[in-house]
Amino acid sequence: MKSMNTMSPVAELPEATENATHAMPDAAPGDGASGGDQSPQAPAPEAEAHAAAPEAAAAAAPAGDQSPRALLKQLQQEFKAFRDCLPLAIGVDKQVLARLPGLNRKTMRAALGIHTGSMRYLRAMEKATVRYDLDGNPGAEVTDTHRLHAKELLQQRFKKEADRKKAERDAAVQAEADRKRQEKLQQLASKFAKR
Fold first, then answer.
1. Which pTM does this prediction carry?
2. If you count Cβ atoms within 10 Å of the first and of the last residue's Cβ in the chain, which end, N or C, has fewer?
């Protein structure tokens, strides 16, 4: 089924968001993924000045080498719309870039894709009536088309998960039947070997 890119708050390159969504479909915001891939470094003198204001330090940190998950965690810490998983305004990528200049666009789009592809966000979009800016201020309406798209994505996820569980159950039943069959064959073989 062809997905509709109109739901994505990223206006310029929706296919990047779609690809990121497929890369980690069940990712939930704040699911423990952090910037653990960044190596620890000795604090620079200016970093000590930011120690009293962690949000300011996070905003001042170079975002170019940041992973999408680390960036998403930063966005959740800094912006109410991400923290509360509110339906994002169309073009929110431009708002993020304005607030965090120097941000790697590809990383930002991947982070947005993870966020907007999460089950929590899709559930929020399915019932949403209004979109929000970064600070959580209401804006434009969520269209019926976007709500329906979120609902369809959720249904696809639920069906895929149900199919996966059914396949696992079927494989377990088949493995048990094979084990019993092998056990019976061994019993027969040992019975005839005694004669």
1. 0.55
2. C
Specify which residues 132 forms β-bridges with: 88, 138
Q: Which of the four pLDDT bands, split at 50, 70 and 90, describes residue 9?
A: low
Residue 135 has pLDDT above 60, yes or no: yes
Residues 6+ apart with CB under 8 A from 69: 27, 33, 34, 35, 111, 114
Residue 54 in any domain: the answer is yes
Which domain range does residue 92 map to?
5-35+46-147
Here the CATH number for the domain that contains residue 90 is: 1.10.1710.10
Give the pLDDT of residue 195: 63
Looking at the chain, the whole-number percentage of residues with pLDDT higher than 90 is 49
Are 63 and 103 within 8 A, CB to CB?
yes
Domain-embedded: residue 169: no
Q: Which amino acid is present at 30?
A: G
For 138, phi and psi rounded to 5 degrees?
A: -65, 150
Q: How many separate domains does the chain show?
A: 1
The two tokens of residue 149 are 């798209």
